Amino acid sequence: MKKIKLYNSAHLIVSAIRILEHQDNVSPSVENVCGMLFFSIEHGNFICNKLKEMGIVDIVDGAFGNKLYIRDFSRIETIPAEEEDTSIKDELEKYADSRKELQGRIESIKAKQDNKKKDLFAELDRQLKSKLDKKE
């Protein structure tokens, strides 16, 4: 599946709002815009909420659902056109590294515990031997 950048999605959403306003003479809902752009509702809501945070669109919740309004389309140009592309492979490598680090810490804690046990048993053994030597 091709990853759509936020910059491109913002242009698509604003354009769809304008077209649907022109066709229906009312402000469109997120569902209408998603239907026009073949976005999933979840993806559309995510993008629209991002655009709302940036002041590009307004989402007004009313008795008949939510409606989208364009606030300041020129702010789209503040979105970087080329986003940093973090792949799943990079994320998996970071996770694997963190797991290795955690495993290393667990191993060192186990080693310390083993040394403490050995020292404790050695001390107990020494005390027992000294008590047995006193009895003889």
What does this 3D model show about the protein?
With 136 residues, the chain is mainly alpha-helical. Helices cover 65% and strands 9% of the residues. The protein folds into 2 domains: 6-78, Orthogonal Bundle (Arc Repressor Mutant, subunit A), CATH 1.10.10; 86-136. It has a two-stranded antiparallel sheet with strand order 1-2. Strand 1 and strand 2 form a beta hairpin.
List keywords for this structure.
two-stranded antiparallel sheet, 2 strands, Arc Repressor Mutant, subunit A, mainly alpha, 65% helix, 9% strand, 136 residues, single chain
Shape: rod-shaped
Provide the CATH architecture of the largest domain: Orthogonal Bundle
Q: Class of the largest domain, according to the CATH hierarchy?
A: Mainly Alpha
CATH superfamily of the largest domain: Winged helix-like DNA-binding domain superfamily/Winged helix DNA-binding domain
Oligomer: single chain
Low-confidence stretches: none
The ordered H/E elements are HHHEEH
How many β strands by DSSP?
Answer: 2
Radius of gyration: 32 Å
**What is the number of helical segments per DSSP (H or I, 4+ residues)?**
4
What CATH calls the topology of the largest domain is: Arc Repressor Mutant, subunit A
Q: What is the helix content?
A: 55-70%
Terminal-residue CA separation: 83 Å
Main sheet: strand order: 1-2
Number of structural units classed as domains: 2
Task: Output the structural class.
Answer: mainly alpha
Strand content: 5-15%
Biggest sheet features = 2 strands, antiparallel
Mean pLDDT level? 89
